[in-house]
Amino acid sequence: MTIYALSTAPGRAGIAVIRISGKAASNALHALCRGRFPAPRIASFRRLRHTRTGEVLDEAVVLWLPGPASFTGEDMVELHVHGGRAVVAGVLEALASFGLRLAEPGEFTRRAFGNGKIDLTEAEGLADLINSETAFQRRQAIAQHCGALRGQYELWRATLLRAMAYVEASLDFSDEGDIAESAFNEAIPEVRRLVAELNRALADGRRGEIVREGIQVAIVGAPNAGKSSLLNALAGREAAIVFHEPGTTRDVIEVALDLDGFPFVLRDTAGLRETDSPVEREGIRRALASAKEADVVLAVYDATAPHPVLFPQGKGTPLPPLSRTGKVIPVINKIDLGQPDLSRSPEESLLISAKTGEGLDALKAELVRFAEESFGGRETPLITRARHRQEIERARSALDQFLASADGSEHPEVAAEHLREAADALGRLTGRLDVEDVLGQIFSEFCIGK
Question: What is the DSSP-derived secondary structure letter of residue 276?
Fold first, then answer.
């Protein structure tokens, strides 16, 4: 079935791009242009008419892209029309009246995958590129879309196929003990090298996934320490309610932030204190959970308090909750109202005023420094999604089972099955095997027209 869709954002714009893909794409273009068919891959100016009534719809630039040398691998047409709502609606209605079907989300990219134009990692890279909001997300997505992950995954698979060939050879010569044993032993170092590479990839601190999803920053502290004011100051807008009454923030509030190209997700949390309110206790529980899951914790202290604490009640001064990376940045707020006793303050505290903005540049610089040290490597991460990590872990587990059986405790055919399980897992990374269960999830992330 030939499909069509608006590929640019809906609404009024200077130009809107409408794409068509499928066997009837050329017939639809003939009908729109009324015989003045453009040359392949040359932008041509044409007057578009309704396919049924002949009414002039627009004057547009059209591109005829015959397959298989197109994005989807099928015959494609691109119509660059004026971006007024009425123009777009008229052209789309004309295509529908011609018998074409409106594309589903991601259907163009899914057809590209189905026709072998891209693999799954490249399709995921394209989805990430469309959704990227910072420079680092863009760079990572472009590298993935251009085949950076596919290349490494295919090298791993090639290594595994060599090991499988040795094991299969040992089975073919099972009646000749010396030959079979020699062939089987050739597979062991190949598998060991592959396991080492998979372990290195898995021990990356989730760098690629964190860059893709955003570096999580939890803002914690006692009530009225200025956590919400700090969130608003960093975001540059009134994202959280600021009020003098303690316990105003009950739930976690998230704001995305771009600092020097690094994506951050700031989370304002409920004030930490002892309370009898079940609602506030739930907010505190969520605050502590948010800190535990964060990559960085901003522990906010009140400069006007007698001494800096996170809990204004209770015995002692509890330590700030640790992030999953162990990174905690102590922040003493409200220095515009009073100077804190630094002798009783946490070491390496940053002095700020969320109200006046003093010290915020130093805080942003500290966040960027952490991001550069933790996630700013120039090499492209080999894992950017939880799906990748799961398949690589499955492959490593199967390879570990193979190595454990290499002492002869299992029959060679069982050992060979472990290698096949690993090959299946690596094949699912790029889509070499049947991956219908993940296709729907991947391509549903796309907008209509991609």
Answer: S
Distance in angstroms (rounded) separating the CA atoms of residues 349 and 78: 57
Long-range contacts of residues 412-418, Cβ cutoff 8 Å, at least 24 apart: 412/167, 412/170, 412/171, 412/174, 412/180, 412/184, 413/171, 415/167, 415/184, 416/164, 416/167, 416/168, 416/171
**Of 166, 200, 304, which Cα lies nearest the Cα of 244?**
304
Cis peptide before 66 (omega within 30 of 0): no
Helix H segments across 173-222? 177-202, 207-213
Q: Is the dihedral of CA 345, 219, 276, 281 positive or negative?
A: negative
Element housing 15 (H / E): strand 13-21
Radius of gyration, CA atoms only, the chain: 29
Q: Is the pLDDT of residue 343 over 90?
A: no
CA distance 77 to 62: 7
List strand residue ranges (DSSP E) for 127-237, in order. 215-221
Instruction: Please report where in the chains the tokens 């709502």 appear, as a residue.
Output: 85
Going by C-alpha positions, the residue among 199, 133, 213 that lies closest to residue 385 is 213
Q: How far is CA 20 from its chain centroid?
A: 28
Report d(CA 292, CA 171) in Å as an integer: 51
| Distance (Å, whole) CA 194 – CA 159 | 7
> What amino acid is encoded at 94 in this protein?
A
Q: How far apart are CA 386 and CA 399, in angstroms?
A: 20
Residues with Cβ < 8 Å from 57, sequence gap 6 or more? 32, 48, 49, 50, 81, 87, 90, 91, 94
Taking the CB of residue 313, how many other CB atoms lie within 10 A of it?
A: 10
E strands present in 354-420 = none
Entry pTM = 0.79
pLDDT tens sequence across 18-72: 999 999 999 999 999 987 789 999 999 999 999 888 899 999 999 999 999 999 9
Which residue type occupies 368? V
CB atoms within 10 A of CB 225: 30
Tokens of 220: 């914690």
Q: How far apart are CA 70 and CA 74, in angstroms?
A: 6
Amino acid identity, position 234: L
**Chain centre to alpha carbon of residue 45:** 38
pLDDT at 111 over 90: yes
CA distance 336 to 245: 20
Measure the CA–CA gap between 379 and 151, rounded to whole angstroms: 14
- Residue 112 and residue 295: Cα distance in Å, rounded? 36
